[in-house]
Amino acid sequence: MYAFTFERPTTQADAVALAKAGGKPLAGGQTLLASMKLRLASPEQLVDLSAVKELAGVRTEGDSVVIGAMTRHRDVAHNAAVRAMIPALATLAEGIGDKQVRAMGTIGGSLANNDPAADYPAAVLGLNATVITTEREIAADDYFQGMFATALNDGELITAVRFPKPQRAAYMKFKQPASLFAMIGVFVAQTGQGVRVAVTGGGNGVFRHTRLEEALTRSFTPEAAAGVKTDPSELNGDLHGSAEYRAHLVGVMAQRAVAKALG
Question: Which residues form the FAD-binding PCMH-type domain (predicted)?
Fold first, then answer.
């Protein structure tokens, strides 16, 4: 690596002040530290958020679950309120990476990084969640802005995410066997306002699949999902799978997600 300073604030106010001054927030470190080791990132100051207790934990607000930004994947997966109100979200968290990643990675770190194959962005967009920051509240449809890009401003920190309880929901992904990221992941949520379908792993970032949403709003069945084709030109290909293969996987994962949501 190289020389850098390390700060470990214990309050949100101190963390914000350090971030506003140019410090790089460190959440779970699952991406940032690896990038630093490869010299793909070179922050002069790290701001470790792990000691800011007010950023961690899960609570309920009416028909919503609010998850603190520094809550670990493992804790989301095992939380009783999450498992009772949005079991699909708990299942998603349980399937992130391996045990080490789940023990260290955080929901806020994942969303701030916005890897195009990450799992949490699919849940946030599929459930129409709200990203709460130190400055404002950002609707899911406005938050994700492409590969590793979000609506966050410099020095703005995620504090929590508010997930509304759906009528039904499920997440299915086809894993890249080495990284366990999603080659394609599909989150399906049925709500009183219709169906939302979010796809991760296929493009430059998570996106809503409007044709699947329209079909599943009319008929929430695997057969309805099977009748929708995904245009390969809208997806990316790499050594793990072509765009055509990923387009096929979108349909397969969508059908499986609907079947799982129906029980």
Answer: 1-168
